[in-house]
């Protein structure tokens, strides 16, 4: 739950986390699964809202921009070139249409190579999924990922040096079936299973 604004202060804290006597985490890689890039500058005059967290993170050097991938991007935007800012920073942007009708296992093999053994954060917006599966969110966008692809992405992060993860934008009151909350809970469980040091049967 919570909107995507929460990732910004989390990454501020992660960057300051001590990993040794002489070293902080500093900038981290990011696997960002979403319908939107969330790199806007402001909305209604505000610089902090759920469409701006990753621009703020770039400005504060919280991200290792050469190790940022955004998966499932599509839909509406305040900007006529919604991918431009991300690409200018060096992010890899994987639009939803590049994911349609295929397994994402090969993509995650590429992502694992890109991330290497350095610290990585996983941030998953439920609106990355098609609203047929997850209508309970504030900004649904058609033609999204499937639950099976979501599992491929999360399970594909196993072996990465994950230092944290989140699942955001779940709004159960918009889904009378309860499917969005069920899906969100299962995806969070899967995230816990791929954290370093977790043993699964």
Automatic annotation (TrEMBL):
Pfam families (alphabetical): Arginase
GO biological process: putrescine biosynthetic process from arginine, via agmatine
Domain of life assignment: Eukaryota
Keywords carried by this UniProt record: Hydrolase, Metal-binding
UniProt keyword Metal-binding present: yes
InterPro entries for this protein: Ureohydrolase, Ureohydrolase_dom_sf, Ureohydrolase_Mn_BS
GO molecular function, a single term: metal ion binding
Keyword Hydrolase listed: yes
Record family assignment: Belongs to the arginase family. Agmatinase subfamily.
Protein's UniProt name: SPEB protein
Organism: Bucco capensis (collared puffbird)
């Amino acid at each position: 739950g919570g909107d995507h604004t929460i990732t910004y202060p989390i990454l501020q804290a992660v960057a300051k986390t001590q990993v040794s006597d002489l070293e902080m985490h500093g900038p981290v890689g990011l696997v960002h699964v979403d319908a939107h890039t969330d790199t806007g500058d402001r909305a209604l005059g505000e610089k902090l809202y759920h469409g701006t967290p990753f621009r703020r993170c770039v400005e504060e050097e919280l991200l290792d921009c050469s190790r940022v991938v955004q998966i499932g991007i599509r839909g509406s935007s305040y900007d006529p070139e919604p991918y431009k800012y991300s690409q200018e920073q060096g992010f890899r942007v994987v639009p939803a249409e590049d994911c349609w009708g295929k397994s994402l296992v090969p993509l995650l093999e590429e992502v694992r190579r890109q991330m290497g053994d350095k610290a990585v954060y996983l941030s998953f917006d439920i609106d990355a999924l098609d609203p047929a599966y997850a209508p309970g969110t504030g900004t649904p966008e058609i033609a999204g990922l499937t639950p099976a692809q979501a599992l491929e992405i999360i399970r594909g992060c196993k072996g990465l040096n994950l230092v944290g993860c989140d699942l955001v934008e779940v709004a159960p009151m918009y889904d009378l079936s309860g499917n969005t909350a069920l899906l969100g809970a299962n995806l969070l469980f899967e995230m816990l299973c791929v954290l370093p040091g977790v043993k699964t049967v």
